[in-house]
Structures are given as structure tokens and as C-alpha cells.
Amino acid sequence: MPAVEDKIKLEKNEKNKVDLTDPTLYINRELSQLEFQRRVLEEAYDETNPLLERVKFLAIVGSNLDEFFMVRVAGLKRQIEVGVLELPPDGITPAEQLVVIRKVSSQLMIQGRELLRDELLPRLNQAGVHILNYAELNDKQLETVKTYFNEVVFPVLTPLAFDPGHPFPHISNLSLNLAVMIRDKEGKNLFARIKVPNTLPRLVPIKRSSGSVRRDGTVPYHHYFVWLEQVIAANLDVLFPGMKVVEAHPFRVTRDADTEIQELEASDLLETMEQSMRQRRFGSVVRLTVNEEMPAKIREILIHNLELDHNDIYTLDGPLGISDLSLLYQVDRYDLKDIPFKQANPNELSFNSPDANIYSVIRKQDILLHHPYDSFLPVVEFLLAAARDPDVLAIKQTLYRVGKNPPVVTALLEAVQNGKQVAVLLELKARFDEESNIGWAKKLESAGVHVIYGLLGLKTHSKVALVIRKEGDGIRRYIHLATGNYNAITAQLYEDLGMFTCDDDMGADATDLFNYLTGYSEKKEYRKLLVAPINLRSRLEELVQREIEHQKRDKNGHLIFKVNAIVDQRIIRLLYEASMAGVKIDLIVRSICCLRPGLEGISENIRVVSIVGRFLEHSRIYYFHNGGNEEIYMGSADLMPRNIDRRVEVLFPVEDVRLIRHLRDDVLETYMKDNRKSRLMLPDGSYKRLAPREKEEPVNVQDMFIASRQSVSKVQPGIA
To answer: Is the pTM of this model over 0.85?
Structure first.
């Protein structure tokens, strides 16, 4: 991203006030997203990371860029097509954004492949993990690979001709293909396309062999792989008997995959989403990646038939679709991966007496879980206990991304079988999880669960599970509220926070929330929860404004926000105002940040850091010093217009003083001390990696949280 700090000239009105709508005060959302990809790529360069972890980060960059083109670039292209005139806060037109995006994304793709070629592959080779080119195979390996091709690959392949009798074949999204030129007996050149089957491993495993003995006496295996597209290209003569194969070149297509559901016209959202999933693979092409060796004549065939602009072609040296490198992580070389650790379980949830259960524990105190350092199992057990407890009357839950074989869904199905009333809002519009969610929605519905697919015009992104239990002559509501999804797999990979409580007001709010989600409700007031799009924006703005007043009166204003993204212009303007009033603002922002920190007279009191490490930082924490009477909210909402205005989100208060102290001192303060995985954001939108100063202890926040869980008995009561 070009440096702009020296170019920022702030317009002032007759009252000598800064114009906080000045476009130079805002960083473009898309370019900030690409800066995040650069930080992820840095982790692939980082030699302190184990080798296979570095490869994983490189694969993540490839996957993230795929999604970026499928959604963000596709959206910009649609804006240009329909002539959108409204500009983002930074004032950059869609066409101008595409020009810079092409430059920056090309740089990232090229750097990634240079890193793979020059450093990662040689180091993998030294470590005994060999990714070979077909030409490098020895006779024995060739024999093995040819047998694999004949028995496994060949039956799956379908060559598709392109000539007056055969229309140009459809190229599906993210598919890897071979563009093949063949010559018939009359000497005429013909074009054919072969899809590299995604049902087979992209890296074809060749028989492994034992290596030399290590110092510890163990013998590692050498693992050998060859690229599937090279195997196919080397055996094309079998596919075109009687023809001469002239040349073959790989290409990969990325299509517009951002579905737009016209809900007002959709009588059945489930059916509409299923149709949308079928149509996604037919979206317009937004990117074509090819190798440098592909000749101009083949490129022109692809450009013409895929209806591309020349600027949509990205020429790369190396493998296409590097997201497939994630397959290497399955290799059983644990010496090349992060050291595994044991997740903690809170002592409070280890029931030592026959009368104890999860409800009796929650009645005593709120319980905080910090994943992945704390196990996700208590959340599953919370739902399983509800499913099996004869006193539980009903379970209500929001689900956004649940993944494959989700234990949470299993618990809900068991609850229905046991006669509980179960209502689930399962968001069908969760991007790229739509197909999975559709399947689970059908299964839940067929079992008797009341399934709601979402609200008209709104995604439901909140993370709430409500259990209604009969106790004595009345009922008590037990709630789990969280920052992350009810997904047992990502709970081991994403950093998130969750809380169990039976607070009466929050329980009543949760009931009102589900009535809003499942029925008809115009309720505008909640007791404690901040609910988007109802009161979350107004209440957040009030809390920031309150901090400004504290600063003016007592000079002790302090905000700490940990979020995934800051995009919303109104919130950014308010943070600028707070900074100008002297409020100290610490922002821990994982990915997109459209605010410029460190601008004299405007944001010099704002510090922005981004932490990229072993786990994806996903929690949202909002800390308000409030003149010493500290308040903390956590939940599902980032500071983006879509979260605040176009989604159902929930932020919940943490009221237990012990938990507030823990979140401030042991969580947020530790994040702000990180000097190993933290990057400091500069006013121009670039980032500078922090490093320990002289005589300063190195701090890796994620490693510190892992270490803190190695002795669960030392953990404070009520904190997992």
C-alpha cells in the first residue's frame, strides 16, 4: 500500500475543527484486507515457525486470496457494471481499487511462490518431505505413479473437446484444469480441456521410505509426492489415442461466488439457498491464473471464451492453487509442526459430588472459557446435560457455522428424542457454509426441531444458547454466550471467549431475543444485552461518548477494543473524537482496519496492533475504563456496518469483578505486551513488526496462554 502519511492534508472549517469526513483519514477496506494477507504471508517467512506450519500459512494465504477474489473483487466488478456512484469513506472508486488490488495481490502471489520455490521446498526436501516434479521421478517411482494413473486417475478423467460441434466447456469455480493442444492426422491443431479431478489428492503420494536414524533413536520416514496435474500431463497420449499431444498447460479459474438472495421474492428460503448454491459455480469469472509457459494463442482462447479482460489474468511461476499445500499438514511429521498442548477444563466443572452438576456450578458464579486454551467440551456437555435432564423444558440456540459431524447438533437431536422443546435459528446465509447448514437444517427439521432459517434481510450471527429449566415452582434460565461459533473443530484453531451465566436479566433478554428471531417482535429495549440492529450501535456510541466525558472531567479515559475488523465510518469518527479529547485508545485488530492511527491532532492517542500467530484471533472484547468503574462487553459483533446494521449480533456484559479483572490484566494487557507476533499499524496503513527491546522479555501472547493452562489447578476460581 503506498505511503500516504505525508500527503494527508486536513481540511478545517471556519471554527478550526478538523473535517472528520475527509477521505484521507480513512484506509480503503480492500487494501487493508490485502495488508492482512501480507501479515499472514510473513508467518510463512518466519523461520521461528516449524516448517510445516510455514507451509500451512502459505496455503492460508492462497485460500484467503481465493475468497477475496470470489467476494470482494467480484463485488467491485459488479459495482462497475451497474454504475454504482456512491464512494466508500476513503473516496477511491471501484475501478481505482481494482487497479491497486491487481498490483498488490499479484505481488503477494508472486512472493508466495518465490518463498515456496527458494526456501520451503528445499527445506522440506532436507527434512525428508519431497515434492517432486514428474521429470525428477526415478524408474521405480515412475512405475508406481504410472500404475496409480492407470488404475485411479485415468478412469476419472473426461477430456472435453472445443470445436464447432462441441461448445466451450464450463470451467467450475476454483477448478484446476489442463488446456491441451493436440494435432490430428491431417495436421490440424485442436483444443481440449481436462479438469484435474478434485476428488483425488492434488499431491499424489508415492511410497514412503525410512530415513536415517535421529539422535533420539527414532527413524523418520521420507515422504514423496508429485503434482497430480503433472502426472496427467505426462500421460495425455492415453486420453487422445491416434493424436499427437502438442502441449498442455495448467490454468485455474476463480468465479464470483458471493450469493445475493432476493429474500422478498423467496417464498422458501431453504429452496432458494439450495438453488443459489447450484448457481454459484456458474458465476462470472473474476480471475484466471496461468503459468508463464502458456503461449498467447491458448491464452486468447481462454480470454475469449471465459469473457475475460486481460487484466483478469495473473501469470505465475510455480504451482497454481497453493491452498492445496494444506494437504502436506497431514504428513505424520510432528517434529515439523507446533508442539501440541492439552486443553484445560475448569476445576469448577469437574464434579466431585454426586449432587453436583453444571447448573449448580453456574448458579454459584459465572464461568469464563477462553478457547482454544480451554476445551470446548464444557459447551457440548452443557447441551448434553440439558438434553438428558428431566427438569429441562426447552433449549433455544443460534447456529452459524457448525462444521462436519457437530457434537452440538448431536446434543440437540438427543434433546428432541427426549421430549424437549428445541428451537434453532440456523443461518443458511453463512458464506461458504451454506451447503453444510442446509443439510443440518433438514436433519434437525426432520427430527422435530423447530428450525428457523433467519430473518428477512438480516444474517443472524449471534452466539447464544439458552436452556430453560424447571426449578421448584418456577423456572431458571441458563445461558451460554460467546464470541465464536458452536463449532468443535474451529474451537481448537480460533481464539474465542464464552461465558456461562444464569443472570436473570440476561436470561430474560435471551428470551426476548429468541422471540424476536422466531416470531414477531418490535421490542426495542433490552435489559443488559446489546443487540444489533436494535440497540447495539446507539449503546456503543453512548459508551464511547461517556469515556470522552470522563476524560474531560478526570483525565483517565481509556478504551481497549479487541476485534477482527474496524470499518464503520461513524465509529471511526467517534474514536477520532475520543482521541482528540485525550482518551487513550488501544485497538487490537486482527485484519481490516480503516482507521489511521498516529495522526497528529487527530489520532495520536490511538495505537493499533495486529496479532497473527498459531491461532486465528477471533474474540471481540470491548473495555471501557468508565472512571474506574470498569465495564467489559464481549460478543459476536465487529465494528463493521454489516455487523452493526445488517446482522443480528449480541454483545453481553461481563459483570463479575473477578472476570473483569482477569480479562483486563491477564488477557488484554498480555495482548498489548506481545512483541513476537504483534505488528504495529502505521498511519499509512502498513504494519511494522514488533520485536523485544534491549533487556525486554520476549512475549508471545498465544504461547503464554498455552503455558498458563498447563497447570489447571493454578487457575483462579470461575476462570477456565
So the answer is: yes
